[in-house]
Design brief:
- The protein is an alpha+beta fold.
- The longest helix is centred in the last third of the chain and has 33 residues, at 524-556.
- It is flat.
- The protein contains 20 helices and 19 strands.
- It folds into five domains: 5-90, 3-Layer(aba) Sandwich (GIY-YIG endonuclease), CATH 3.40.1440.10; 105-247, no CATH class; 256-370, Ribonuclease H-like superfamily/Ribonuclease H (Nucleotidyltransferase, domain 5), CATH 3.30.420.10; 383-550, 2-Layer Sandwich (Nucleotidyltransferase, domain 5); 557-610, Orthogonal Bundle (DNA polymerase, domain 1).
């Protein structure tokens, strides 16, 4: 805890109720956070009040604050612009820090008898020819890939003529994406023509290319060179297919940028998709330390993003509303010199683009963590749906199973990072009572589970009883939740707890907590995860119940025979498969079973004969 909190709060309470920028500093006098406020006194004093009201990331920042400074402005908009400028100059630890290390991209044409075209980030060969520079590496790579595919140019590392007829042609040749120069059967004049056409394509004169290709195709057809005419026809179709695909990316031909954010406990990923004249021209993604981002991530990111000489488009689509959205729109309009609309699309094309951008953000975050994007998305949706403070990466779920109040058991399953962790599954026999009482059963099971936690908590376990879950889901409604809440209060534990409610068809319908039911069918990823958890815990607990019930049936028959224990009973069932077969077996047949001597065989035969 920062011992200077009361001193800093007294200083903050003396600030004016006017717009401005506040500057937090550490013991060394270094700036660690810069923010803006409509009313400085209210905003800054909040930092130094009760720390229980702040998220963890804000508390960490406040713990390092030794002093603060401030600058008054005439308006909140001026404060926004000044904040962005100061962040760029000082690079504070707890602000979004966006480095412009994008660089430029080039189209490289090698200087060799059989020229090759590739996308590069820098000029690395003095003898080569270059087209560029271009600011979008995505656009350059995409265009070069398209050109190589359309004109069937080699993309391998082979050198021609040196590698003619050395080995078999690669897969690209067999799927008609390469003309197969390595076979030595392609005339150099034909290859040069394809390279020149590809360069014309990259220079953007597609109408002229199609016109020239059609003329060549018709000439070849007139000269009865049908095979050659077919190659020109295929190139024309490939170009036209490529154009049609690009045209359906957006229905409108305006310029727009799309932003979406994905987050977990460690990282934030912001993905950007840029469209120019209806065509996707660039894609970027940025990672930040989630624990250091204190507030208003989207606004701070967008200000810095467009402060790095990037063109401001007609429209900016974002995935969620954020503070200062109108101020940001005013700022970007000033930078552009024309109207720039900043909006959260609710339907139509805009919503589709935002969803696609969000999927990309989750995918990038998943790759960084070595997980599937669908798992991250489902956990983040569940976190937001239930209002959790952290992503529930470790989830425990419980279910009770019995037959009319007999053979009461419970199953505990664990989902880690959205997947079943079967080594952490546990089973419980209900011991404190007999008869049917699901609430009492759930209370006993969780009480025993938490007792095991206190026994093993110092072992730094990554799973099992020595680790507390991020979330507990019970197969049941409000009654089960309240029963377990009592146990958690007794044990002084604070773990998010919810029940999974089924419909009349035993399918997941909702989640219930203290405040009533929460519908989840509108959030597809979270709904799928919860349904999977509920089905798995039910399967596991019922399976254990059936096993116990079968064992009890076994005890009621075979193990009643003097000299037959559980091990010999299992051997008998293993050999004869069913009790019916054991009953009809002869003494000689029974004696052949492992562990069964003549005397025991006679006892078994006599027992079932009397029965």
């Amino acid at each position: 805890m920062n011992e200077k909190l009361h001193i800093l709060r007294e200083k903050a309470m003396k600030l004016p109720l006017t717009p401005g920028v506040y500057i937090m500093k550490n013991k060394q006098g270094k700036i660690i956070y810069i923010g803006k406020a409509k009313k400085l006194k209210n905003r800054v004093s909040q930092y130094f009040g009760s720390q229980n009201k702040h998220p963890v990331k804000v508390r960490k920042m406040v713990e390092n604050v030794e002093d603060f400074d401030y600058i008054l402005t005439d308006s909140e908009f001026e404060a926004l612009v000044l904040e962005a400028s100061l962040i760029k100059q000082n690079q504070p630890k707890y602000n979004i820090l966006l480095k412009d290390d994008k660089g430029y991209s080039y189209i490289k044409i090698t200087n060799e008898p059989y020229r090759k075209i590739s996308a590069v980030l820098q000029k690395d060969d003095e003898n080569a020819e270059y087209i560029g520079p271009f600011t979008s590496s995505y656009s350059v790579k995409q265009s070069v890939d398209e050109a190589n595919k359309i004109f069937r140019l080699p993309q391998c590392n082979k050198s021609f003529r040196r590698d003619f007829k050395k080995g078999r042609p690669c897969l690209n040749f067999h799927i008609n994406r390469c003309m197969g120069v390595c076979t030595g059967k392609i005339p150099k004049s034909e290859y040069d023509e394809a390279v020149n056409d590809a360069l014309d394509f990259l220079n953007g004169d597609i109408t002229k290319i199609i016109k020239d290709l059609k003329e060549k195709m018709n000439t070849c057809a007139e000269n009865l060179e049908f095979e050659k005419a077919g190659k020109y026809r295929d190139r024309i179709r490939a170009i036209e297919n490529m154009q049609s695909k690009q045209k359906v990316v957006t229905e409108t031909g305006d310029s727009k940028d799309v932003f979406a954010l994905a987050e977990n406990e460690q990282d934030i990923c912001i993905t950007v998709l840029r469209y120019d004249k209806g065509r996707l021209c660039d894609s970027e993604y940025f990672f930040f330390d989630s624990e250091k981002m204190v507030a208003n991530v989207r606004c701070n990111f967008l200000i810095q993003y467009y402060g790095m000489n990037r063109t401001v488009p007609q429209k900016v689509y974002v995935d969620e509303m954020f503070d200062d959205m109108e101020l940001l729109q005013q700022h970007l309009t000033n930078v552009r010199g024309k109207k720039c609309l900043v909006t959260v699309p609710q339907r139509g094309e805009g919503l589709k683009l935002v969803n696609m951008c969000r999927e990309n953000a989750y995918e990038k975050l998943a790759q960084k963590k070595g997980r599937q994007s669908v798992e991250i998305k489902s956990l983040e949706e569940l976190k937001n749906l239930l209002g959790l403070s952290k992503t529930p990466e470790y989830i425990e779920s419980y279910d009770i199973s019995h037959t009319g109040g007999e053979d009461n058991v419970a199953g505990m399953i664990v989902f880690k990072n959205g997947k079943p962790l079967k080594r952490a599954y546990r089973t419980f026999n209900i011991k404190s009572f007999t008869g049917q009482d699901d609430y009492g059963s759930m209370r006993e099971v969780l009480s025993r589970r938490f007792d095991e936690y206190f026994k093993y908590k110092d072992d730094n376990a990554t799973d099992g009883f020595g680790k507390l879950p991020d979330l507990i889901l019970l197969d049941g409604g409000k009654g089960q939740v309240n029963a377990v809440k009592e146990v958690m209060t007794e044990k002084n534990l604070n773990i998010p707890l919810f029940g999974m409610v089924k419909d009349s068809k035993h399918k997941t319908r909702a989640i219930t907590g203290d405040g009533g039911e929460i519908a989840i069918n509108s959030m597809r990823s979270a709904f799928t995860l919860v349904s999977e958890i509920q089905e798995e815990v039910h399967r596991f607990s019922v399976g254990f119940h059936h096993k116990k019930h079968t064992k009890k049936g076994l005890e009621l028959s075979l193990t009643k025979i003097d000299g037959i224990g559980e091990k010999k009973a299992k051997e008998l069932l293993k050999t004869f498969k069913t009790i019916k077969n054991i009953k009809s077996a002869s003494v000689d047949e029974l004696e052949k079973v492992k562990g069964i001597n003549r005397q025991l065989a006679e006892k078994i035969h006599e027992f079932y004969s009397e029965e």
